[in-house]
Amino acid sequence: MSVLTTHSFLALTWHRVRLSSTNTGTNDVQGVLSQEANWQGTNANNQFVLLTGSNPAVYKARGVAWDQTGTARTVVAAAGAVADNDLIQLGMSVVYGSGNAVISVYYNGAQVGQTTYSGMTSLQAGGTRLLLFGAHAMAQNKGRSLRALIEDLTGSGRTPLTLVQQDYAANLARF
């Protein structure tokens, strides 16, 4: 069982979006960080995934974490849509409390969604695949990953939103 299975954590990426279609009637879903190509529903190979979408009627940022029972716990956030060539910082934190977990999604230095899931005490232990970034994530991403950070919040004692804001301020001009 990995440390991230039971420890609170923040996963954060910087990404340059490349859409396969600029048709706003479709949702060009792109995985930015994942372990498996199928992000929908129960999946024994996933622990968490970060996604972007190009349809403003759907979402532009989504985080999914699979709990200890293999149930997908989703936070859809950030109204609107990503556009071709957007530079985005996208992140997700899972913070465990007394018998629950708070999942938050971050977009460009701000928290844009948060949900508390009662009974979620860890990520599923079945996530056996390596984390994939950029062009390999979910076999869908056409963009370019520029930076990635995974912080063990249980070990560091740091606050996810503070880390996201500091990272955004420090790196926005770099890319």
Index terms:
175 residues, mainly beta, Jelly Rolls, five-stranded antiparallel β-sheet, 3 helices, 39% strand
Give a topology summary:
Layout: H1 3-6, E1 9-16, E2 30-34, E3 48-52, E4 61-66, E5 72-77, E6 87-96, E7 100-107, E8 110-118, E9 132-133, E10 144-152, H2 153-156, H3 160-171
- The main sheet orders its strands as 8-7-6-1-10
Along the chain, the helix and strand elements come as HEEEEEEEEEEHH
Radius of gyration: 15 Å
Number of domains: 1
The separation of the N and C termini measures 35 Å
SS element count, helices: 3
- Percent strand equals 35-45%
Number of extended strands: 10
Could you walk me through the main structural features you see in this protein, from its secondary elements to its overall organization?
- With 175 residues, the chain is mostly beta strands.
- It has a single domain, classed as Jelly Rolls (Sandwich), CATH 2.60.120.200.
- It is built from three helices and ten strands; from the N terminus they run H-E-E-E-E-E-E-E-E-E-E-H-H.
- The protein has helices at 3-6, 153-156, 160-171, and strands spanning 9-16, 30-34, 48-52, 61-66, 72-77, 87-96, 100-107, 110-118, 132-133, 144-152.
- Strands 8-7-6-1-10 form a five-stranded antiparallel sheet.
- The radius of gyration is 15 Å and the shape is globular.
- The relative contact order is 0.27.
- Residues 134-139 have low confidence and may be disordered.
